[in-house]
Amino acid sequence: MRVLVVEDERRLAATLQRGLRAEGFAVDLAHDGEEGLWAATEHDYDVIVLDIMLPRLNGYRVCARLRAAGDDTPILMLTAKDGELDEAEALDTGADDFLSKPFSYVVLVARLRALVRRTGRRLPQTLEFGDLAIDPARRTCTRAGTEVRLTAREFAVLECLARASGGVVSKREILESVWDSAFDGDPNIVEVHVSALRRKIDAPFGRSAVGTVRGAGYRLAVDGG
After folding, report:
1. Do 180 and 156 form a contact (C-beta atoms < 8 A)?
2. CA neighbor of 174 nearest in space, from 185, 166, 187
3. Gene3D superfamilies, per this entry (predicted)?
4. What is the rounded distance in angstroms from the CA atom of residue 26 to the CA atom of residue 182?
5. Three-state secondary structure call for residue 169
6. What is the rounded CA–CA span in Å between residue 84 and residue 70?
């Protein structure tokens, strides 16, 4: 999943980014309301984590403007306040869920996954390619009925390829979907993860589902290879 975190406490934002990336999320950060609103309208996110107390434009106004523009991306609002009126205002403004600081990171991740499941965005129950089955909700992968253990990042790359339904996905598209739009590391990291996928979901089963399209990117065979 691709997540936008709009949080002006930079240490908290960085901590969330590191933790969510470790879970296989692609995470973009914004540190004020106007920056967050711009990012939310310029990019496609699966879910937005939105602090209420933001400089320049508070979270309520960001949420209201997104909803007024017809943006139905799930929004989980964060606040240091704790009270029924704050929760009610967040939900009335258009937020889908509410979490007060300090919060449990485990609960945050669970709520993000639940939000995406409830809204039905990009999470069909199972993606099937021949005998290769990918379950985005449970984060599981099986080949010929055998579970294949993947790291969070490997699963995210596989899911990105699966979503293309046999189409070609460029290295840049994978980086933006699985890492984030500001990734400035070695782009060959994609090749490393693709190679790992081939070792795990193809080689042991005598398949070749993950293909390279020279000069264009990668493709997951619709028949499972």
Report:
1. no
2. 187
3. 3.40.50.2300, Winged helix-like DNA-binding domain superfamily/Winged helix DNA-binding domain (1.10.10.10)
4. 10
5. strand
6. 27
